[in-house]
Design brief:
binds zinc ion; 2 domains; 4-stranded mixed sheet; 4 strands; single chain
Length: 176
């Protein structure tokens, strides 16, 4: 039930993600994979999908799911699991922010305007979160990608995971 609430809060982003994944699966994918509570497309090994991307990155989280290059590496699964939880946090935050804006606007403005503001804020939580992370890293003089707090966390947790044995001390969020 608690998990269902989380999926509901993330719904606008996940609808767009699933539609995008269907196109990626059709054109460049080899299979679907259910992992970490999300739906992922595994690219064909010789896929021409964003060649540079498949060389440099082996996964991308677009919401409750995303894309993995083939073969799927365990460090990529762990790395993207961190992003998936960050996605959930960002969507809950945008849902709460949009709800407060909706209540205030519903008191002060016509109901339709309040609803429009709600719908303009809520769906974009993850996008704003990623842009903010890149922008803050850039403004602090760091690399926008590697220096962003969401990437630093994902790389650190994934590398830490590889140092440990799989077992009781493995982070609970992954490999479900
Ligand atoms: Zn990442």
């Amino acid at each position: 039930m608690k998990k269902l609430f989380l999926y509901a809060v993330c719904l606008p982003n996940d609808i767009a993600m699933v539609l995008s994944l269907l196109v990626v699966r059709l054109l460049w994918g080899s299979s679907f994979l259910i992992k970490n509570g999300g739906l992922w497309v595994v690219l064909k090994e010789n896929s021409k999908f964003w060649d540079e991307w498949t060389l440099s990155y082996s996964g991308v989280c677009l919401g409750h799911g995303g894309i993995f290059a083939s073969p799927v590496k365990i460090i990529s699964v762990v790395h993207e699991a961190v992003h998936l939880e960050q996605f959930e946090v960002s969507m809950l935050k945008s849902f709460l922010s949009a709800s407060v804006a909706f209540i205030v606007c519903a008191i002060l403005c016509p109901y339709k305007i309040a609803l429009m503001i709600f719908l303009c804020v809520w769906p974009f939580g993850y996008l704003f979160y990623l842009i903010s992370g890149w922008l803050v890293a850039f403004l602090r003089g760091e690399s926008p990608y590697k220096g962003s707090s969401h990437e630093e966390a994902a790389y650190a947790i994934a590398e830490d995971y590889l140092r440990r044995k799989e077992g009781a001390d493995a982070p609970r969020r992954i490999l479900k």
